[in-house]
């Protein structure tokens, strides 16, 4: 049986080659946008482990994003910790909170589950907003330092780049490792059990699967990668603020995932790129960006319900079938 044409295209290699020369294009703006896409695509993909793989709709994913950001910022700025241990600690702290919150959330289903995730996220936001001694309160934690990147000076070509360009390569490498781990998790027996739970939780329970335990594990893993994304975003943003935990921040990865296609692993990444690039273009012409976004989502949901990647996959299957 001939594989569809779209499945024969080495997308990972193509994306890597496209993103690799971005800092050499001559504009800081290109590097800024590319870094934003790379980091937030991980945020959206971490959500999709719950949404697309496990079938859990959450409205509070920003809680773990902000916990990872605050943890890393506090360790680097206030305690002088190196970047890599601080970044890992951000992911672990987010995973710990996801484990605690998830313990209560997975006991509920559907809209009750979603609303409880939102409630926990708002609690995190309130703590970030009010705990002045630790989080900086409303002012947040500005001037989060870049990691020490002197070691990159020995690398050919990259050594002469600006600090922000070097951080782009650090973020690209770390996000690539996270993607490899998430891909491995999704395709593992654990990931396949999650898809069974998504399709029919009652049947999974009947055949002996501990549905709550698997959902809790997925919740924790998803929170960990969201925390790693938030940690990178805090450094890239040069500050961490309570808005990172607000409910509107949770809507961003949800929109990215739906836009790109939640049924496909690369869907959230494509959705993140599409949303950020669309935002950059539309806001340069008009201030009515939310109106345009709403129109795009309406068209997408009715005309392309599978998202961008879902539509391209169907098109590729048709072309591949015709060529075969």
Structural features, described:
The protein is mainly α. The chain has a domain at 23-247. The protein has 14 helices and 2 strands. A two-stranded antiparallel ribbon has the order 1-2. Helix 4 crosses helix 5 and helix 11 packs parallel to helix 14.
Tell me the radius of gyration: 20 Å
Order of helices and strands: HHHHHHEHHHHEHHHH
Q: What is the overall number of helices?
A: 14
Helix content range of the residues, please? over 70%
Beta-strand percentage range: under 5%
How can the largest sheet be summarized?
Answer: 2 strands, antiparallel
What's the overall geometry?
globular
Count the E strands: 2
Strand order of the largest sheet: 1-2
Average predicted local confidence, pLDDT: 88
User: Terminal Cα separation, in Å?
Assistant: 9 Å
Class by alpha and beta content: mainly alpha
Stretches with pLDDT under 50, minimum 5 residues: none
Secondary structure topology:
Layout: H1 11-19, H2 28-54, H3 62-78, H4 83-105, H5 110-130, H6 132-135, E1 141-142, H7 163-187, H8 189-199, H9 201-206, H10 211-236, E2 239-240, H11 247-260, H12 267-283, H13 289-303, H14 307-323
Antiparallel strand pairs: 1-2
Helix pairs in contact: 2-7, 2-10, 2-11, 2-12, 3-4, 3-5, 3-10, 4-5, 4-10, 7-10, 8-10, 11-12, 11-14
Provide a quick synopsis of the model.
The protein is mainly α.
């Amino acid at each position: 049986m001939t594989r569809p044409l779209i499945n024969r295209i080495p997308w990972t290699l193509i994306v890597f080659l496209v993103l690799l020369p971005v800092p050499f294009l001559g504009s800081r703006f290109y590097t800024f946008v590319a870094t934003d896409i790379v980091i937030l695509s991980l945020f959206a993909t971490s959500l999709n482990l719950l949404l697309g793989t496990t079938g859990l709709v959450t409205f509070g994913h920003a809680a773990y994003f902000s916990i990872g950001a605050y943890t890393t910022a506090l360790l680097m700025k206030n305690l002088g910790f190196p970047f890599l241990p601080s970044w890992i600690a951000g992911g672990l702290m987010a995973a710990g909170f996801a484990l605690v919150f998830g313990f209560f959330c997975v006991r509920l289903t559907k809209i009750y589950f979603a609303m409880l995730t939102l409630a926990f996220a708002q609690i995190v936001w309130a703590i970030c907003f009010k705990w002045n001694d630790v989080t900086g309160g409303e002012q947040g934690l500005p001037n989060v330092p870049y990691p020490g990147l002197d070691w990159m000076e020995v690398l050919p070509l990259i050594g002469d780049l600006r600090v922000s360009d070097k951080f782009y390569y650090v973020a690209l490498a770390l996000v690539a490792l996270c993607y490899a781990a998430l891909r491995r998790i999704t395709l593992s027996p654990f990931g396949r059990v999650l898809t069974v739970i998504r399709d029919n939780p009652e049947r999974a329970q009947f055949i002996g699967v501990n549905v709550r335990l698997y959902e809790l594990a997925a919740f924790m893993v998803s929170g960990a990668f969201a925390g790693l994304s938030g940690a990178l975003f805090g450094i890239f943003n040069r500050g961490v603020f309570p808005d990172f935990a607000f409910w509107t921040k949770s809507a961003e990865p949800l929109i990215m995932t739906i836009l790109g296609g939640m049924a496909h692993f690369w869907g959230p990444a494509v959705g993140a790129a599409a949303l950020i690039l669309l935002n950059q273009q539309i806001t340069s012409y008009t201030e009515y960006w939310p109106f345009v976004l709403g129109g795009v989502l309406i068209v997408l949901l009715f005309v392309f319900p599978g998202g961008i990647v879902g539509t391209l996959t169907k098109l590729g299957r048709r072309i591949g079938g015709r060529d075969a």
